[in-house]
Structures are given as structure tokens and as C-alpha cells.
Amino acid sequence: MGPLVNLLAERDDSNSPAVKPISPLRELGAYEALWLEKGATFKTIAERFAADPTALPSDFISPALADQCARQVLAKLKGNGVDQFGVRINHAGDYPKRLRDAKHPIEVLYYQGAWELSETRGVAVVGTREPTDEGKERARRISRALVEKHFTVVSGLANGIDTVAHTTAIELGGRTIAVIGTPLGQYYPPENKELQKKIAREFLLISQVPVLRYSKQAVPQNRLFFPERNVTMSALTDATIIVEAGETSGTLTQARAALHQGRKLFILNSLFERRDLTWPATFESRGAIRVRELDDIWKALG
User: Fold this and answer.
1) In this structure, what DSSP letter does residue 92 have?
2) Across the strands, what pairs with 122?
3) Which GO terms describe its biological process (predicted)?
4) 3-state secondary structure of 54
5) Domains plus CATH for the chain?
6) pLDDT tens-digit readout, 236-278
7) How far apart are the two ends of the chain, measured CA to CA in Å?
8) Is 244 left (phi over 0), alpha (psi -120 to 50) or beta?
9) Which long-range contacts (CB under 8 A, 24 or more apart) does 165-172 make?
10) What number of CA atoms fall less than 13 Å from residue 123's CA on the CB side?
11) Theoretical Cys-Cys bridge with 112: which of 13, 137, 200, 287, CB 3.0 to 4.6 Å?
């Protein structure tokens, strides 16, 4: 599906008037325009839609401005080599209902690849960008087991554990989804550029990052998109498995999100055995599952 194809807006109430056609291109332009407003954050935008749960982005933005922003987005993406992509919009098409479990759910996301992978059972495998050799081996073993159990391996395309998770799934003929913290056509880390292209071409690559806002602000502000990427990754999956992570790791953002969203959160036993870590016990007390053997995962997932 491309952004130029009209969709029909969904209505929960069967007594409502006939559904209305919407333009994905105008909606993505309107959503981008919302992000250009002063002080816009995931929280402020989510609050705006929470106050009007049936609203579409175009309900808040003039058609002229929405169309102008849409043209700018298309030009930016094309300039970054993105000729084919799709969008998913809340209230229309195949927007995943499970994303509404996020604390500040997104209204629009971009993707490249096979969208139908989002409908398979997925488990996120995440962890530090600088894992130990043992951590890498554990990530490989878990990803291999997930492929054998026909789960889709989901991760964030970062260095370290994320990369091991994606590449193991691909090498074994499994499925993988990458949820990135940059717009489509941007590559971070740069050494994963070819991996990102392969996932976009053969699997599924998802970005929730607004293209225009990202292009107009500096690196420190754009880093804030990465924690929100973890929140969306958790909402998209059945569970999150943390392989290796330090006391202040950004991975813990996903741990908090998983529990908030009612997803399973698995923490490997090796992390409980580290004396320098307090977070595994803290999250276990809040409902996380300690994984001593792989069967602990399968029993919980059912």
C-alpha cells in the first residue's frame, strides 16, 4: 500500500453514517504538521487525540498546510532514497489496535516491507549495545528458539543484542521486524545500513519518527525518539525478552512499557546473578518473569 491510496475510516458504532474516505497522504501531512507545532511531544499529541478519540490528524490542520507538509515529506524521503513506503493511520486500514495500549499511542507510522508480518506473533529481543560474548550467545540462542517456535523476532536495529537478534532470525530463515528510532531512509548506527536495507526489502521496517521534525532539530533532541521507539516496539509484540542490560540502560524503558501495556516481560536469570544490578529484582517484583530455562518463556506465552 502506498501513501497515495485512499482508505476508509473505521467507525466502531455500526449505526454511524457511512464511513468516509480519507487520504493517507493528507493525514501524514497533517500529522507531520502537528509535530512542527511548538512544544509538540508524543505526550502532548496523544493528549490531543485522547480528548477527541475519533479524530484524524486532518481534523486539527488546514488542508493546505497538511498538503504542503506531505509534499515536503515525500521530497525528504525521496532525497534519502525512499521511493516505496507505506503508512498506517489510527482509524483506517490495518492500523494495529494493539498500539493503543501504549501510554502515548501514535496516530501515524511509516513502514517499508511486508506489513503482514505485523500480524504474526512477535517477541522483542533487546539489550545493550555493548554485550559480552556470553550475552551475544544468549541472544543467538533465544532468537534461534523463537524462530523454531515460529515467532517473529522483533528488535530495534541498534548495535549489540539487537543486531544479533535480527541477523540470527535472518540466517535461520525466520521472520524479523525492526522498529527504528530515525525516519525511513536514515541509518543509525551507520554500520547497520545494509542490514536495515535488507529488512526493509525482505521483512518489515517500521518508523514512527516524524520526518520534518527530525530534519529541523539537532541530534540531542532527536535522541529522544529512541526511547519512544521502544514503547512502540513493546506494544507491537506479545512479549519482550531482555538479554543483557546495565543499571541505566535505555532498554529499561521497554521493560516499563511492557508491564504498563500488559505484555509479558522476560528477564534472563544471568542478569539476576549480577551483583551490580538492582533492576532485575525490581521488575520481577512488578510482574516480570525470571527465565531460568527456555520453557519458562513458552509456558508464559502459551
Assistant:
1) B
2) 152
3) DNA-mediated transformation
4) coil
5) 24-113 (no CATH), 115-301 (3.40.50.450)
6) 999 999 999 999 988 999 999 999 999 999 999 999 999 999 9
7) 33
8) beta
9) 165/125, 165/126, 165/139, 166/195, 166/199, 167/195, 168/139, 168/140, 168/143, 168/144, 169/143, 170/198, 170/199, 170/202, 170/203, 172/143, 172/144, 172/147, 172/148
10) 27
11) 200
* Closest to 241 (Cα-Cα) out of 281, 268, 211: 268
DSSP H or E segment with residue 221: helix 219-222
Residue 101 contacts residue 25 (beta carbons within 8 Å): no
* CA-derived radius of gyration, the chain: 19
φ/ψ (deg, to 5) at 35 = -70, -20
- For 272, the 3-state DSSP assignment is helix
72 grid coordinates? 515536503
- Give the tens place of pLDDT for each residue, 30-89: 999 999 999 999 999 999 999 999 999 999 999 999 999 999 999 999 999 999 999 999
Q: Which amino acid is at 174?
A: G
Question: Cell 551475544, residue?
Answer: 136
Name the one residue in this structure whose C-alpha cell is 525518539. 225
Asked if residue 84 lies in contact with residue 2, where contact means CB atoms within 8 angstroms, the answer is yes
DSSP at 244? S
Query: In which residue are the cell numbers 493511520 written?
Result: 89
Q: C-alpha 273: how far from its chain's center?
A: 30
Let me know: does 22 contact 56? Beta carbons within 8 Å.
yes
Q: Are 253 and 279 in contact (CB under 8 A)?
A: no
The helix/strand/coil state of 123 is: strand
CB 255 within 8 A of CB 248: no
